[in-house]
Write a structure and sequence with these properties.
By secondary structure, this protein is an alpha/beta fold. The protein has helices spanning 20-37, 42-58, 60-71, 74-98, 134-148, 163-172, 175-178, 188-196, 207-220, 242-254, 274-286, 305-320, 372-379, 395-402, 442-445, and strands spanning 2-4, 11-14, 105-106, 113-121, 124-128, 151-155, 181-183, 200-204, 224-227, 232-236, 264-270, 324-325, 331-334, 337-340, 343-346, 363-369, 384-385, 387-391, 409-412, 429-430, 433-434, 448-456. It is built from 15 helices and 22 strands.
């Protein structure tokens, strides 16, 4: 499989795909090693994780350089590798605190029975991760699953696979880890093989693909933890600090070139401050610099060619229906890379694709509202419910508005805070996801099944219990 370089447009890397039988063999090897792995104490698994942290640090520069090619983002690549070190440290600290199966206790409903509980980790957890933050989203589920005692079959996206080379070296340096964590290379067929050989699936990606994976998991009767797309709204109330709101909205919409599921993608601004908001954000959007020189600038090219096509289609659809382009507006080929400057759109509405379909690009469509009820109706007029933002100087008012937004996480006076805050448990609403939270303590606890041991301390009931004459 030839892999495109997002900066040059050249297909300069070859990914050798794992055939289904290879994936099956890797899963079997994990299952064999899992018999020992899950019997280790949580502290012993932390010790192995700490060894991996050491080897990961050794290969960190190499992994970051590979990520920088995969994504055409040097600074964010360094942030991703640093974030993984933070995750390893955080779960090494928090995991042992959380692993605390309840002590044996008497049953409240059957007084002669003692209840014991065991937490049983899944054998093989399949992790299928996307291309936008390739390393972080590959390991955000993998690390707590391993610590819980699961083995992991990990398939990162075939769009951004280069970083796997360095990552695999860091894993191989820790034999105990390499036995229960194996990488899978390939596209859709490899992904199907992961689903077919796992006991639980963690998938991050688009809604259409997530639905297919969810259906395949249902067919096999295994759990699917699905983190899917978003169309995050921002509501900017009349009393909002415009400097705060425009800074946060711009960063959320176009940071990482808008290629994040929690990016703000539709902005609703009170009519009394609408003109001032638009004026300020246009000025700031125009000042954003592109990294056509990879050593300077703020915003890189689009990673995935098909996504670039979708972004241009949304812009064209909006313009054909009356939208105005105030900045940007065109996906351009610069030295082989596909670039889109921050694009501010006004005169938009919900008849346009840009206001209802996920964009995954640096577009800022803005509508004005006259009442809070209208803003909430528009914010909730979506199949998505990932996250959202509310801006207001009145903290209580912002929280009140946030309580009516149908989404799993609401940032107040900022945008996309879920990319910084990992310890707040949340669930995605609507089609943005399903099942246990990857954030907060649930990100670890969801990898256990609860087994009850029911211990009778008295003589068991006999068949005399069913004697009709004694009723």
């Amino acid at each position: 499989m030839k892999v495109r370089n997002p900066r040059t447009g050249e297909y300069d890397y070859e990914l050798v795909e794992d055939a289904p039988e290879v994936v099956e063999k890797k899963a079997q090897e994990i299952r064999s090693a899992h018999k020992t792995w899950h019997k280790r104490t949580i502290r012993e698994r932390v010790s192995v994780l700490q060894k991996w942290l050491g080897s990961f640090t050794e290969f960190q520069t190499e992994i970051a350089e590979q990520l920088a090619i995969d994504t055409a983002r040097k600074r964010i690549a360094k942030v991703e590798t640093g974030g993984i070190i933070g995750l390893m440290q955080a779960w090494s600290y928090r995991g042992p605190q959380l692993y605390n199966p309840p002590a044996e206790r008497p049953s409240a409903s059957a007084t002669t029975v003692q209840i014991g509980q065991q937490w049983v980790p899944y054998g093989v957890v399949g992790v299928i991760s996307p291309w936008n933050f390739p390393l972080l989203l590959a390991l955000i589920d993998t690390i707590p699953a391993l610590l819980a005692g699961c083995g992991v079959l990990l398939k990162p996206s075939e769009v951004t696979p280069r970083f796997m080379d360095g990552l695999e070296k860091s894993i191989a340096a820790v034999p105990e880890l390499a036995a229960v964590l194996k990488l899978v290379r390939g596209g859709a067929e490899a992904g199907k093989a992961v689903v077919n050989n796992s006991d639980a699936i963690c998938f991050t990606g688009s809604v259409p693909t997530g639905k297919k994976i969810g259906a395949a998991c249902a067919e096999r009767f295994i759990p699917a933890f699905l983190e899917l797309g978003g169309k995050d709204p921002a509501i900017v109330l009349e009393d909002a600090d415009l400097e705060v709101a425009t800074d946060a909205v711009l960063r959320s919409c176009v940071g990482a070139t808008g290629q994040a599921c929690q990016s703000l993608e539709r902005i609703y601004v009170h009519e009394n401050i609408y003109d001032s908001f638009v004026e300020q954000i246009v000025k700031k959007a125009t000042a954003v610099t592109l990294t056509t020189n990879p050593d300077e600038g703020q915003m890189g090219p689009l990673i995935f060619e098909k996504q670039a096509e979708k972004i241009q289609e949304q812009i064209d659809d909006a313009v054909s229906k009356g939208a105005k382009v105030l900045t940007g507006g065109k996906v351009e080929n610069i030295n082989g890379g596909l670039w889109c400057a921050p694009t501010v759109l006004t005169d938009v509405n919900h008849d346009m694709d840009v206001m209802v379909d996920e964009t995954f690009g640096p577009l800022i469509p803005i509508m004005s509202f006259s009442t809070e009820e209208q803003a909430l109706d528009w914010a909730n007029d979506s199949i998505f419910g990932l996250s959202a933002s509310v801006f207001s100087k009145d903290r209580d008012k912002a929280i009140e508005i946030a309580s009516h937004i149908e989404a799993g996480a609401i940032s107040i006076n900022d945008g996309s805070l879920t990319n910084k805050v990992y310890d707040a448990e949340k669930n995605s609403f609507k089609e943005s996801g399903i099942n246990g939270s990857r954030m907060g303590d649930a990100g670890f606890l969801r990898f256990f099944r609860k087994k009850a041991l029911l211990i009778q301390t008295a003589h068991p009931e006999t068949m005399a219990h069913f004697e009709e004459s004694s009723s």
